[in-house]
Design brief:
mainly beta, Thrombin, subunit H, four-stranded antiparallel beta sheet, three-stranded antiparallel beta sheet, 7 strands, about 55% strand, globular
């Protein structure tokens, strides 16, 4: 599995951020498994060590989001860091 969190607005670091999860097949093809969006840029992500379906992302609005890949269209929790 390959996970990517990104922001397309490099100048202002605002605008929507995207979370993509890709899977590499046996014949070296990439398949899009998950695609979801956040209201602000996503700049980093980490997998939970004990729960492979859980990803944390850090966003430009000062938040940390907890995502369950079984239901990626809805984040589980957000905490704002100021």
């Amino acid at each position: 599995m390959i996970a990517i969190a990104l922001n397309f607005d490099h100048v202002r670091s605002s605008g929507p951020g995207f979370l993509f999860l890709l899977d590499l097949t046996a014949d070296n093809q990439l398949n899009l498994v998950v695609q979801t969006q956040w209201t602000d840029g996503l700049f980093d992500l980490a997998f939970a060590e004990d729960h492979p379906d859980i990803i944390l992302t850090a966003s430009g609005d000062g938040g940390i989001q907890l995502w369950d890949l079984k239901t990626p269209e809805v984040y589980i929790y957000q905490m704002l860091i100021f």
